[in-house]
Design brief:
This protein has 135 residues and is mainly alpha-helical. It contains four helices and no strands. Helix 1 runs antiparallel to helix 2, helix 1 packs antiparallel against helix 4 and helix 2 runs antiparallel to helix 3.
């Protein structure tokens, strides 16, 4: 890793950057489509999509590998929640199929990046250090 590639903040993480882009697209879909009139449903997908990069950032800043991993698991859960809402809302025609597919693709990419990061962080831990993903 060169000095230019050094991670100084969560903002330097490609997975955080990609999650921010994906969340921004979802927020745009909500604001500019029929879901804007469904406030409760709109709020749920807004919260879950925003939670992905927020948990990545929060975990990174907590300073311990254990806490970082725990928040990456939360981010992965929020990602699954967001994908579920995307599919549900597309079936209800709140999003057109092409827009929903593009968002789904974005979140698949973020999911792969998250899984890679989680795997790399877990490789340096023994069983006593590993966070319980259920807590």
């Amino acid at each position: 890793m060169t000095d230019g590639d050094k991670i100084r903040s969560y903002r330097d993480l490609k997975v955080w950057q990609r999650a921010m882009e994906a969340a921004d697209k979802v927020l745009d879909m909500v604001e500019n489509g029929p879901l804007a009139q469904k406030y409760r449903l709109a709020g749920q997908i807004e919260a879950s999509s925003a939670s992905v990069p927020a948990n990545i950032a929060e975990g990174h800043e907590l300073g311990t590998r254990r806490q970082y991993l725990k928040h990456l698991y939360y981010a992965r859960g929020s990602l699954a929640e967001t994908r579920t809402f995307l599919e549900m809302f597309q079936k209800r025609n709140y999003f057109d199929a092409a827009t929903a597919r593009a968002a789904w693709s974005d979140y698949n990419e973020v999911g792969k990046m998250l899984n890679t990061l989680i795997t790399r962080l877990e490789q340096g831990m023994d069983d006593t250090d590993a966070p319980d993903p259920n807590t």
